[in-house]
Structure formats: C-alpha cells, structure tokens
Amino acid sequence: MSMLTYLTAGESHGKALTAIIEGIPANLKIDIKFINDELQRRQLGYGRGRRMQIEKDEIQVLSGVRDGITIGSPVSFTIENKDWANWQSKMDVESVKDSEELSTPRPGHADLAGSLKTGLKDLRNILERSSARQTAALVGVGSFAKLFLKEFAVDILSRVTSIGKVKAKNSPIEVSMLEEIDKSPVRVTDKIAEKDMVAAIEEAQNKGDTLGGTFEVVAKGLVVGLGGYSTSGKRLDGRLCQALTSIPAIKGAVVGQIEDSVHLPGSEAHDEIHFDKEKGYYRKTNKAGGIEGGISNGSDIVLKGFMKPIPTLSKPLATVDMKNKKAAQAFKERHDTVAVPAAAVIAESAVAIVLASAMLEKFGADNLDDLKQNYKNYLKRIKLM
Ligand SMILES: Cc1cc2nc3c(=O)[nH]c(=O)nc-3n(C[C@H](O)[C@H](O)[C@H](O)COP(=O)(O)O)c2cc1C
Predict the structure, then answer these.
(1) How far is the CA of 13 from the centre of ligand 1 (A)?
(2) Does residue 313 line the site of ligand 1, with CB under 6 A?
(3) What ligand 1 atom has the least distance to the C-alpha of 312?
(4) Cβ–ligand 1 contact at 110 (below 6 Å)
(5) C-beta separation of 310 from 212 below 8 A
(6) Relative to the CA of 42, which ligand 1 atom is closest?
(7) What is the pLDDT of residues 109-153, one digit of tens each?
(8) How do residues 272-288 score in pLDDT, each as one tens digit?
(9) What is the pLDDT of residue 23?
(10) Is 340 in the pocket of ligand 1 (CB under 6 A)?
(11) Could you report the per-residue pLDDT of 341-378, keeping only the tens digit for each?
(12) Which atom of ligand 1 is nearest the CA belonging to 109?
C-alpha cells in the first residue's frame, strides 16, 4: 500500500534512465538545482570507479511540473547516460554491432539466476538493468519526496558507520553536520576513522579487491502516527527495511538500537514515556529508532543498512562458462572498490519515498495546502490527548 508510486527504467549503458512518479500533490515547489545536487551527492565517495568521473547526472523533467510547481499529474523525467556515444554500438535498440556475448556469470550478481530465469544467454542483458546505475533514477524520485517532506520540516540525513573492518565513532547525527559529512571522502564525521577507511580502500584497490560496510539514515522532524499496526503492509518499519534492502548490495537493515538491545533484558531495552506541558509526550532515549508497533512515535527515525562488498572484482572469482560448462573466471566490468558512501545517499532517497508516501496516506494527496491544513488540525487534536 503506497500513495506515492513510481517506476524507473533504463539500462546502465543505455541512452538514459527514466522514471514516472504518481501521487505528488499539486502546488509543491520544485527546485531543479536541489535535485541535481542530490544526483551529484550519489556520485561522490572515495573508491568509486571511472564511470562516476564520466557521468555528471542531470535531471530533465518532462511532465507534471509547470512554472516551477507540481500540477498534480504524473511527474516524469530522464537522466541521460553521458557515456552513451561509446556504448551505442553495443546497446542500440535496433541493431547491436560489436558486442561480445558474456557467458561467465559473476558470483554475487544477478547474472546466472537472471539468465536462467529469462532465457537470455548474453549476460549483458541481465547486468545492464540489475546494475546499481538504476539508483540514479531512484535518487531522482527521492529528491521529489525530499522536497515534499521539507514542506513539513522533515530532514533526512545519512553517514557511513563502517567500511571493511574500520568502524567510525559516532555522536548523534544533526542537520548541521551534513555539509561536513558530504565533504568527507567517505562521508564520516570521525576524522581518524576517515583516514583509516581511505587507507583500507587503497589497500583493497591495490589487491584488486573490494569492501562493503554499514551506514545510518536518520529522519528528523517526523510527526507521530505515520504507518500503521493493523496490517503488515502498513508497518513503517517493514516498509523502510524493504526500501533499504531493495537497494543493490544492501543485505540487511535494522531499526534503532536493536543490535545492542537484543542482548539486553526488556527492562533496559525500551524508551520510557514522560509528559511535559510544553513538549507533550516525550522520551529521554530512542532505542526503538522512532518506530513502535509499526508507527512513527515522534522521535527521530534511525535506520542502519549493511552493504556487502562489491561483487565485480579485478581479480575475478571462479565461475562456470555457460557455453561449455567448463571452469572459468567471471568476466570483468569497470567497477567501484567501495560504494558505501553512495549507498548511504541512495538510502536517504529510499527512506524519503516511504515517508512521503506515509505522509500522503495520513494527510491527503491532492493539494499541498489542503494537506498542510490537515496536518495542522492533526497536531492540534493530538495536543489535547
Ligand atoms: C552505489 C552502488 C554502486 C555499486 N557499484 C558496483 C560496481 O561498480 N560493481 C559491482 O559489481 N557492483 C556494484 N554494486 C553492487 C551491485 O549492484 C549488486 O551487488 C548486484 O547488483 C547484485 O545485487 P545484490 O547484491 O543486491 O544481490 C553497487 C551498488 C551500489 C548501491
């Protein structure tokens, strides 16, 4: 169940990525520079491959926006692949001229299962869409969701918490830290960990290897009562973890401090409830990560994502050639050594889309001003309870 629906399309080395979004209310101001900045943030991070130097993603909005304002119709956009000129002969829609058939599937990728599933023998037909390039379109969609959430003073932040074996020491994340995080080559606030992470990436690079890691995403300023407990499809925790683990290579997502609290007795694992005339209901801790019973509880929503090491390796892993069934080495593509910093930015978008949708479910979807009025009335009502 979702009020904000979208579909992205586009191959990694095709002409362009594209997306259609349905459900953005009319009258939302659209800042194209903000969207392009978000696309840029996805492309940064130490340890990215040459591809990210070639692409400078820029959005071209095709519909749903007029005079800088959404008009309630589906929003559609494209993001061109700048490298298309070099790939047209291999990826042309009508006639492919000089493409070698790939038949040695890479462990850790969709290559083998995707080929068996679709019956397509050239693995390029699988990898072109299963590649994480599609996340540029996701960030495009997420930027619209972020612009919507900003109208309600909701901010979504992220930072890297570990790369390989190097863990960052973290104090709670604040909006004021975002600039510093974005300037860090590995998107951390801990400068010692930053140095160690860069060294670990260089070491992996020199060995022809790759690394994974973890990141956190925090949503601040969200109202109590989003999501629901009545059916599994409404639960905000389930929806957010689904959104995070739908990003390529994100294999786990957790809410709040569950990694610690799973080892604690119940008496130490929850956030006791207090009341203050000014603040209303509040908590002194946020072990739950802002969600109880599948509903936002008014505290920051805190999520952590776990990214596996990049599976394309310069020193390829063992595989089987699907043409002759003989032992072989997996094929090589241009690849990143580490993409955890980028994954964290993508995760902000994935989270923004779920939260924007939950806001639309609770407060209506046709017109932003109606929605704001409903929001205000709701705040007034819960203040009396
Ligand atoms: C931002 C980002 C960049 C990525 N870059 C690469 C890459 O350069 N090479 C690669 O093999 N995998 C890369 N991946 C991971 C693969 O897309 C992913 O592992 C693969 O599609 C298989 O999907 P799965 O890991 O979800 O099972 C990247 C993932 C993200 C989020």
Answers:
(1) 15
(2) no
(3) 11
(4) yes
(5) yes
(6) 1
(7) 999 999 999 999 999 999 999 999 999 999 999 999 999 999 999
(8) 999 999 889 999 999 99
(9) 96
(10) no
(11) 999 999 999 999 999 999 999 998 799 999 999 999 99
(12) 22
How far is Cα 163 from Cα 316, in angstroms, rounded to an integer?
Answer: 21
Question: Is 132 a pocket residue for ligand 1 (Cβ < 6 Å)?
Answer: yes
- Whole-number Å distance, alpha carbon 130 to ligand 1 midpoint, is 8
Cβ 342 under 6 angstroms from ligand 1: yes
Distance between Cα 332 and ligand 1 center (Å): 13
Q: Is the shortest distance between the CB of 134 and ligand 1 below 6 Å?
A: no
- Please report the atom of ligand 1 found closest to the CA of residue 336: 8
Amino acid at 318: A
Q: What is the CATH number of domain 5-383?
A: 3.60.150.10
